[in-house]
Design the sequence.
C-alpha cells in the first residue's frame, strides 16, 4: 500500500504569539482521560472539581474544554495570544496541525496551511512521518473522549 503523503515528513514550527488555531469562536477541544488528570493536577484541583470548573459536555456527553461566554474562544488563550496552560495543554491542541481530518486530502491540508503560518515557515524544522502518526493517534484518542468520572473502565477494576 502506498504510504500517506506526509510519511516523508512535513516542515513545521509553531510561531510564537500566533494563536490562530486557538482563537476561533466555537472551536471544540475534546479531552482525553490523561488530559483531565494532567491539567487538574496542574491546577491543584481534583479531577472532579476541575471538570466542574473548566469543562462542559457536548450534546453526546463527551467532556470538552469550556469557552469564554463573551466570544466563544478557549478560556486558556491569554491576551498575548498564548496558551496559559501550554506545558500541560490538551493532547488535541498539542497534536495540531496533525489531525486526521487535516491530513486526509490535499484540499483539507491546503485549508490548514492558509490558517497556520507554522507550516513551511522560514524557521520550520522537519517533523518526521512517525511523529505525525503519533499525533494522529493522540488526536483520535482525544476525540473519542470520555463521558464520566471516574471513567467506566476504571470503576470496573475496583
Ligand atoms: S496556527 Fe500554527 S503557528 Fe499559529 S499557534 Fe497554531 S500551530 Fe502555531
Sequence:
Amino acid at each position: 500500500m502506498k504510504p500517506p503523503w506526509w510519511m516523508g515528513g512535513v516542515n513545521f514550527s509553531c510561531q510564537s504569539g500566533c494563536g490562530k488555531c486557538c482563537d476561533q469562536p466555537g472551536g471544540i477541544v475534546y479531552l482525553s482521560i490523561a488530559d483531565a488528570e494532567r491539567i487538574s493536577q496542574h491546577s491543584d484541583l481534583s479531577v472532579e472539581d476541575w471538570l466542574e470548573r473548566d469543562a462542559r459536555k457536548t450534546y453526546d456527553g463527551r467532556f470538552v474544554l469550556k469557552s469564554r461566554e463573551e466570544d466563544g474562544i478557549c478560556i486558556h488563550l491569554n491576551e498575548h495570544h498564548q496558551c496559559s496552560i501550554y506545558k500541560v495543554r490538551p493532547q488535541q491542541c498539542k497534536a495540531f496541525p496533525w489531525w486526521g481530518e487535516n491530513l486526509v486530502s490535499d484540499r483539507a491540508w491546503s485549508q490548514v496551511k492558509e490558517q497556520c503560518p507554522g507550516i513551511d515557515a522560514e524557521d520550520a524544522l522537519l517533523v518526521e512521518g512517525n511523529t505525525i502518526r503519533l499525533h494522529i493517534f493522540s488526536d483520535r484518542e482525544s476525540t473519542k473522549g470520555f463521558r464520566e468520572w471516574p471513567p467506566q473502565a476504571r470503576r470496573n477494576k475496583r
Notes: The mean pLDDT is 94.
